[in-house]
Design brief:
heterodimer, A: Dipeptide-binding Protein, domain 3, 3 domains, B: mainly alpha
């Protein structure tokens, strides 16, 4: 207890400092002089915040990854249909009954200092991640016993046991860094990588002004671009902490693309603007209400089911997302069509039935205030997430009809993250950003050992552990799908979480200046993946 | 029992009973004062009778982001909720926090200010503390505190009140110093009155008018603080407040297309603060003996 209080104070001090700096940092975006001369080949993108960590193996921030992913290649990428597509790797396969994953690399990727990108770079990146437990990829490399690079274009990962989505997960998430540059740095967990960048993506950072801009120069060798290099000679990220300002900047022509999605409610902003176009992509995550199993009452399946019946997801999608979203039943998103168990149906919105269910389960309203005496929960959420705060507001009102008293605990973002980390919540209302495959999702959200750190249920169930580990070791694709579908059903019946919606994201760009973006699903990837930026061409 | 008699003859700032009525009348007859007091009265009525004026904003409606019209006087937000209702209900939170926080600040500030003015040893310590508190950047500090504790109307009131007392303490102390140097205080002391009695019975009545002014000024500052904290996402998420309406507009990216969502709550803040400040300043003027020729 003492520890968390101390942690909060530290957080609070940090917040105070950030607030002071933030106030002084506002309004520094007026200087537009640098790009006026050759503005037709400079693509200017709006981002919301500064880069917090330039080390691609370590950084976990969404906005960092926009810039870093354009510099450091990945083995695989996610295409517009949410499928894995080749990037640095031409192909991958399993050998040895699934205990060896083999990647065949392209031979035409080059680092900006002229060196080719080779298998040793991949081996080095993976080994350093395992050695220093860097970023979120370390958990995905758990099963690796050894890595071999028999020639310049082949990498073999030897696994301790077969794990079906190993190659997909590692291939998509792991950044490949230049061995000849990074090995000089020593301890990579302390390597800031904040100058003299060497990359192999379509663009590489050249200079930056904190709080204002990040200038990236074109890599003259990028084989995935139509002409061997990107058509745009320079990409410049500009910092706009407030989405309203960023939208105005796009309208005024100060930027050409918004990295962050346009809020649904604000899409009208661009309605009468012929130059600005919106591109729509799906999501790789979803919004959800997750119940803390350490709470005595939330540990009761009846209560969780009743809560699920008190959320009007249809109305939420209509009101909060203006109808632009999909309903979900279990924890597997419809974007993974092969794994989504279509037999299960969302809990019907019926507060009266929920109330009856709770009464039948023995809950009483002795003081006749319209609420069951024991059932009072706090719903924690991040105050800066416009959609989720609205959801909590509506959830609170509809749950009251079922006799469940909810308290809105939407707090400032960093406080929320700390509380989430420490399990200080009853119900967690939040959004999962990107799951690239359902197996990784189930492992990180329901295993007792909590390898991904996002088991927000704080669930410790031997039965779930067995089901998940059994599925993870299954190599036969059909049996694997059946097991995932079964897990989908179990989680739904247990109502460990109430999935809210899968939303669509809209990205706004200046179509009178640039065209050819190749958007991928989710707001992590969106329009600003390395592949997409390499395809962009200026409008003549 | 002779002390009060001395008081009434000697304290200049407290007007004799017979002229009290006419001075109130003179005060209210000033057009700015009349307008300000009217605005404050309307706000108070709106806060008290909010449920009769508009339903508490809830749920979601089909009329999303509608500009002001007969059906929605102040337009609607991105959920289709009526902004007028939000502003009316926001008046409650703003006024409650404003008044309660300023009461906390007044009680703390007056106690510390008077103690510092009369008891020399306390003065040194209290002045240093007051100076330190005045030098602190209050907004970041309030943000810190509000992030640590769970946001609710109660905690916000405490936080804002706690950071507002130093100004009051300083005002009261300077007035208190003048009073405690007056001959009638020496007289009281000679007659054997205790320190407690002198402070509460002799000095306190002489600074009451200053306290009334402070209540108004501090309350208007507290309203701004509350709106600021709510706008930064540190307000009570269950209570409507003007800052929260602004936050909703900013967060949902509608500032550029839905001017009504920011204009009306901002106007409400402006009106309340302006009215409170003007009423306070004019009150101070009418009570100033130098201006009124004693």
């Amino acid at each position: 207890m003492k520890k968390t209080v101390k942690g909060r104070w530290r957080l609070a001090v940090a917040l105070g400092v950030v607030a002071t700096l933030g106030v002084s940092g506002c309004g520094l975006n007026e200087d537009n002089s640098s790009s006026s001369g050759s503005s037709d080949t400079v693509l200017r993108i709006g981002t919301t915040t500064d880069v917090s960590n330039f080390n691609p193996l370590q950084s976990l921030s969404k906005t960092d990854s926009w810039i870093l992913n354009a510099m450091y290649p990945h083995l695989l990428r996610i295409d517009e249909n949410a499928q894995k597509a080749p990037e640095l790797a031409k192909e991958y396969r399993y050998e040895d009954d699934g205990k060896t994953a083999v990647f065949e690399l392209r031979d035409d990727f080059k680092w900006t200092d002229g060196q080719p990108v080779v298998a040793e770079d991949v081996k080095f990146s993976a080994e350093k991640i395992m050695e220093y437990k860097l970023g979120n990829v370390a958990a995905k490399l758990t099963w690796v016993e050894s890595i071999e690079a028999p020639d310049a274009t082949t990498v073999k990962f030897k696994l301790s046991q077969p794990y079906a989505p190993f190659a997909e997960g590692v291939g998509f998430w792991m950044s490949i860094v230049p061995k000849h540059v990074f090995e000089k740095a020593g301890d990579l967990s302390k390597f800031p990588n904040d100058s003299n960048w060497v990359g192999a993506g379509p663009f590489v950072l050249d200079s930056m002004t904190k709080g204002q801009r990040y200038v990236m120069k074109r890599n003259e060798h990028y084989p995935l671009a139509p002409e061997g290099k990107a058509a745009v000679s320079q990409v410049e990220y500009r910092v706009y902490p407030d989405v309203n300002t960023m939208m105005l900047a796009l309208r005024n022509g100060d930027i050409d693309l918004m990295g962050t999605p346009v809020p649904v409610s604000a899409a009208k902003t661009f309605e009468n603007d012929s130059k600005i176009k919106l591109a729509k992509v799906g999501a790789l995550g979803f919004a959800h209400l997750t119940y803390n199993m350490k709470n005595k009452y939330l540990a009761d399946q009846e209560v969780r089911q009743a809560l699920s019946m008190s959320v009007d997801t249809k109305a939420i999608i209509d009101a909060v997302l203006q109808g632009d979203g999909q309903q979900m039943a279990g924890p597997i998103s419809p974007i993974f069509a092969e794994y989504d168990n279509t037999e299960i149906q969302p809990y019907p919105f019926d507060p009266a039935a929920a109330k009856a269910k709770l009464a039948a389960a023995g809950y009483k309203d002795a003081n006749n205030d319209g609420f069951f005496d024991e059932l009072s929960f706090g719903v924690a959420c991040d105050q800066s997430n416009a959609n989720i705060t609205r959801v909590v507001q509506l959830f609170r009102e509809s749950a009251a009809k079922a006799g469940i008293k909810l308290e809105n605990e939407c707090v400032e973002r960093n406080t929320f993250l700390t509380r989430t980390k420490n399990g200080e919540y009853d119900i967690d209302a939040s959004q999962w950003g990107v799951f690239d495959n359902p197996m990784d999702q189930l492992r990180s959200t329901y295993l007792s050992s909590n390898p991904g750190g996002i088991n927000y249920n704080l669930l410790e169930s031997a039965e779930m552990d067995t089901l998940i580990n059994d599925a993870a070791g299954t190599t036969d694709p059909e049996a694997f799908k059946a097991k995932i579908k079964n897990l989908d059903k179990v989680v739904h019946e247990q109502a460990y979480l109430t999935p809210l919606y899968v939303e669509n994201f809209q990205f706004a760009y200046n179509a009178s200046k640039f065209t050819g973006f190749a958007p991928s699903p989710s707001d992590l990837l969106g329009m600003v993946t390395a592949y997409s930026l390499a395809q962009v061409t200026p409008v003549k | 029992m002779s002390a009060p008699v001395l008081t009434e003859q000697a304290i200049p700032p407290v007007a004799p009973a017979t002229t009290k009525r006419s001075s109130w009348y003179a005060y209210l007859r000033q057009p700015t004062v009349a307008l300000s007091v009217l605005v404050l009265l309307v706000m108070v009525l709106m806060a008290v009778f909010a449920p009769l004026i508009a339903d508490e904003p809830s749920g979601a409606g089909p009329d999303v982001l509608q500009p002001p019209s007969g059906a929605h006087w102040f337009g609607t937000d991105d959920l289709g909720q009526d902004i007028f209702a939000q502003v009316v209900w926001g008046t409650r939170t703003s006024l409650v926090i404003g008044l309660a926080a300023s009461l906390i600040a007044i009680v703390l500030g007056t106690a510390i200010g008077l103690a510092a003015a009369y008891f020399r040893p306390i003065d040194a310590v209290a002045t240093v503390i007051t100076d330190v508190m005045l030098a602190l950047p209050t907004l970041p500090l309030m943000i810190m505190l509000a992030a640590v504790v769970s946001p609710s109307v109660g905690t916000l009131t405490l936080i804002i009140g706690f950071f507002a007392w130093p100004e009051v303490a300083r005002l009261i102390r300077s007035q208190g110093l003048v009073i405690s140097a007056m001959p009638y205080i020496d007289g009281a002391r000679v007659l054997g009155a205790s320190g407690w009695r002198i402070v509460t019975r002799e000095i306190l009545p002489a600074v009451v008018s200053l306290m009334i002014v402070s209540v108004l000024l501090t309350a208007s500052r507290a309203v701004i603080s509350e709106a600021g904290l709510s706008f930064l996402g540190l307000g009570d998420p269950d209570a409507w407040s003007w800052g929260r309406i602004l936050l909703n507009a900013q967060r949902s990216g509608t500032i550029a297309i839905a001017w009504w969502q920011t204009l009306f709550p901002s106007l409400a803040i402006l009106l309340l603060v302006l009215a409170a400040t003007l009423a306070g300043l004019r009150f101070n003027d009418t009570r100033d003996p130098r201006r009124n020729g004693g």
